[in-house]
Write a structure and sequence with these properties.
Elements lengths: L2 H19 L1 H4 L3 H18 L4 H37 L2 H9 L3 E3 H18 L2 H14 L4 H19 L7 H8 L5 H6 L1 H15 L6 E3 L10 H24 L3 H18 L11 H4 L3 H19 L9 H4 L2 H11 L5 H10 L6 H13 L9 H9 L5 H5 L2 H23 L1
Antiparallel strand pairs: 1-2
Helix pairs in contact: 1-3, 3-15, 4-13, 4-15, 6-7, 6-8, 6-11, 7-8, 7-20, 8-11, 9-18, 11-22, 12-13, 15-18, 17-19, 19-22
Length: 419
């Protein structure tokens, strides 16, 4: 392929990722920008192919890329539909307010907030977990200085909670689907990740002395069908883990089965009626998130095909793997962790279990270091007045300390497991 075409494709990828970084300035949704450049890049590859043999190679690479994307897309579609239904029916809100006490100290509430975000983001997508958590923080009506501390913990805890579960973080799912780690190894990440959240909560709680009165909203009555679908969601998650562990059943297949059962159960309970059809909840999910992943993975597939990604992995030849993985985590605060992880997986790096576990934690939590480094941070910034890039940076030292602790703990646990 002509060098000019390669440079054109690289510039298109750079333009797409700049569109992600400067989304708030250009007022164009990042999903639309990335999808446009992702699809256009492959069009350029086909039209610029020097001969039919090369065009066949492009076709084979695209087909492989689309297959990978389809598995991820369908899995996210199923999980997000479940969460959209349960959130709309008030099940999630009911659980939160039934657990929280009416009066609690700020320090204890900070700890409970971290615990809730960690657990909830393990079974739901980060966007939903952040939206629910931020709504809770805003309802406390604290002064801005304290609200910002809670928001900082929310972002870190939400990102930390997802790394141990394939349902909680896309990068974890990607690493698992690539057969780099077993599901038991991922579940072990929960311990060190939660300890890092506790450390950050302790650091942020310095100076908090007051009590908070929690005004609980009137709980929505839960119907039988909502409770059954909530139980089905839990059983689907458990079935995904056991099915993968015992029979190597792809997670997407288990979740699509759970989604189909959700539709059938709703019909059995006469829930699937004209004024509230169950399929409407598929439309209620964040399709822009799905389109963003589609565009990103198309771009990464293109960069892999033209051989650009080898430059990213050159770092692994310069420094030990443990430091390279850590730096990739820090880099994920500037570069979206989905394309970063996809690039590393496409490079087919040779690492042991401890190193893959360390990378899973690093790219999953590293985005917490900057407010723009993760979906959780961007959502929190859009919902909390006063939470900006600079105000979040005030806690960078604390966030970095917790991240380093979590990474070292995960790597150490990985050494014990693989040793």
């Amino acid at each position: 392929m002509h060098m000019a075409v390669q440079w054109l494709l690289i510039l298109m990828a750079v333009a797409a990722f700049l569109g992600v970084v400067f989304e708030e300035l250009i007022h164009v949704n990042k999903a639309k920008v990335v999808l446009f450049f992702g699809a256009l890049a492959w069009m350029v590859l086909f039209t610029a192919a020097p001969n039919d043999a090369f065009r066949e190679r492009v076709q084979a690479a695209l087909s492989h890329n689309i297959t990978d994307i389809a598995g991820l897309w369908l899995f996210l579609l199923a999980t997000m539909t479940f969460v959209a239904y349960l959130n709309k029916k008030g099940l999630i809100e009911n659980i939160i307010y039934s657990v929280l006490p009416g009066r609690v100290t700020e320090r204890k509430l900070l700890l409970l907030t971290g615990l809730f975000c960690f657990v909830f983001s393990s079974i739901a997508d980060n966007i939903t977990a952040t939206l629910v958590s931020v709504a809770l923080v805003l309802s406390l009506k604290m002064e801005l200085r304290k609200t910002l501390r809670f928001a900082t913990l929310v972002v870190f805890a939400v990102n930390s909670g997802g790394v141990a579960m394939i349902t909680g973080d896309v990068t974890t799912l990607m690493i698992f689907l690539a057969d780099k780690v077993e599901i038991t190894h991922l579940l072990m990440l929960a311990g060190p990740a939660f300890l890092a959240v506790l450390l950050l909560a302790a650091l942020l709680s310095v100076g908090l002395k007051d009590e908070v009165v929690i005004e609980k909203a009137a709980l929505q009555p839960l119907r039988g069908v909502d409770q059954v679908i909530g139980l089905l969601f839990l059983l689907t998650i458990i079935g995904t883990i056991l099915g993968s562990l015992l029979y190597s059943i792809p997670p997407v297949l288990t979740f699509l089965t759970g989604l189909a059962l959700m539709f059938l159960i709703a019909r059995f309970f006469n829930e699937d009626i004209e004024n509230d059809p169950i399929l409407e909840y598929v439309r209620a999910i964040e399709f822009e998130t799905l389109l963003f992943f589609l565009g990103v993975l198309l771009l990464v597939g293109m960069l892999q095909f033209i051989g650009v990604l080898q430059g990213l992995t050159a770092l692994y030849d310069l420094v030990p793997v443990i430091f390279a993985n850590f730096l990739m985590g820090v880099l994920s605060a500037l570069i979206d962790n989905v394309p970063l992880t996809a690039a590393l997986l496409k490079a087919d790096l040779q690492m042991n279990t401890a190193e893959w576990m360390g990378l899973t934690y690093a790219v999953g939590v590293g985005g917490s270091l900057l407010i723009i480094g993760s979906a959780a941070g961007i959502v929190a910034m859009s919902k909390l007045p006063g939470l900006t890039f600079l105000t979040y940076m005030r806690s960078f030292g604390l966030l970095f300390a917790a991240f380093v602790f979590g990474y070292i703990s995960v790597y150490g646990l990985g050494l014990l497991v693989s040793g």
